[in-house]
Amino acid sequence: xxxxxxxxxxxxxxxxxxxxxxxxxxxxxxxxxxxxxxxxxxxxxxxxxxxxxxxxxxxxxxxxxxxxxxxxxxxxxxxxxxxxxxxxxxxxxxxxxxxxxxxxxxxxxxxxxxxxxxxxxxxxxxxxxxxxxxxxxxxxxxxxxxxxxxxxxxxxxxxxxxxxxxxxxxxxxxxxxxxxxxxxxxxxxxxxxxxxxxxxxxxxxxxxxxxxxxxxxxxxxxxxxxxxxxxxxxxxxxxxxxxxxxxxxxxxxxxxxxxxxxxxxxxxxxxxxxxxxxxxxxxxxxxxxxxxxxxxxxxxxxxxxxxxxxxxxxxxxxxxxxxxxxxxxxxxxxxxxxxxxxxxxxxxxxxxxxxxxxxxxxxxxxxxxxxxxxxxxxxxxxxxxxxxxxxxxxxxxxxxxxxxxxxxxxxxxxxxxxxxxxxxxxxxxxxxxxxxxxxxxxxxxxxxxxxxxxxxxxxxxxxxxxxxxxxxxxxxxxxxxxxxxxxxxxxxxxxxxxxxxxxxxxxxxxxxxxxxxxxxxxxxxxxxxxx
Length: 531
Description:
- The chain is globular.
- A 9-stranded mixed β-sheet has the order 2-1-11-10-12-13-14-15-16, sandwiched between helices.
- Helix 2 packs across helix 3 (about 70-80), helix 7 crosses helix 8 and helix 10 (about 270-275) crosses helix 11.
- Helix content is about 25%, strand content about 25%.
- The protein is built from 13 helices and 27 strands.
- The protein is an alpha/beta fold.
- It folds into 3 domains: about 10-15 and about 30-190, Rossmann fold; about 200-410, Rossmann fold; about 415-510, 2-Layer Sandwich (GMP Synthetase, Chain A, domain 3), CATH 3.30.300.30.
């Protein structure tokens, strides 16, 4: 039966008030802060404002803001009203925003003033979009035709009662950071799934509590960032430190020095940059009791650098949008392994027929969890992703003889060389161990004979010259560590790798140069198979 107590916004906001946390800081953004009572008031006013604008239950409302107090209130206010929040990245281009809005069937958008022109440009391609509310009206806001002032509309609304909902009703629609434009699939989550994810991850793994100050460097537009930066800290009664700007080292160190977080979430790429820029004579992260790395694979060589720079253990994990958060995790002591399933999570690795594979054999990861998504919005029906009650991921894994799960790449990332599978992740971990490599990515491309071989994109470390001499050294380095058929035949040196708003590598955006791929001049030695 529908009930206001099932509403996720009520569980998070009113739940804190019921625990006498009304005067405690819930969200902090620079010099500004809202207590739990103030947050609950803003959320209820946003809810009333939306209903006054005749935005109905189940209708989709896009939230295109930076990670701010108002952005948090907008997401929770949409949920409070019984509508469906659709967080979008502030880095998305107008063309992509139009695709997301049209795909979701969004009837309204809440947008930062600095981003209003993006909505204005996209609006012509989204006929369903009836309302645009602009936060912090500024110079760019007047380019949004017919937009309303979000601050004024919310301030003029009285706090309203929450919508009565079923636990299984959809409350948010998430698009994964790496979603290609021609394969959009919104991942629909209910009012119940975030709390299930909280119990296994936020409470179970992180032991997050009222005394924690939580700092997430991933964005609300991602499942990782939305959970770690907003939903889970509120569920714990903790304080969440928001960083509206992108996670540049100076801004991060300034924030942690000022606010002294106890728990921090980021991607390995962000942690790597922090480790690179950390001053050896400063320990601004001394208050940290836990750091968690997710959203992409963790290179083996990066773990000790991060531990040394942060002065704190690093938990490494694997998660996916369909389950809202991490489902596998390790304490980082065993290298970059994804570790073991979290509490309440069942995981197995199977072959193409659904039969469990043996130890150290690569297969597809399947999962069962109470935080499972409700359905896909658009694309294939969700039931096609399940087999006998197990959700079939698009990720390839192996389980070693100690029971630890190791990520081997996406199903569509793996490629065969001479009939044998090559995992780009495995090659990247080895290649990334060379001192000249800052970061790298590997894909399979066809040579002049139409045969698939590895190509490596490399960002060279400072002090190393990106040339054929370095390429030859890297090629020899990988040959010494891996089976002969796995080493990259070609190297492309680039300034940076394509990444999504959460820092995840967008492998599908990597493209080989437009020239024929010739085989290497020197053939492999006899007895060393090239394939």
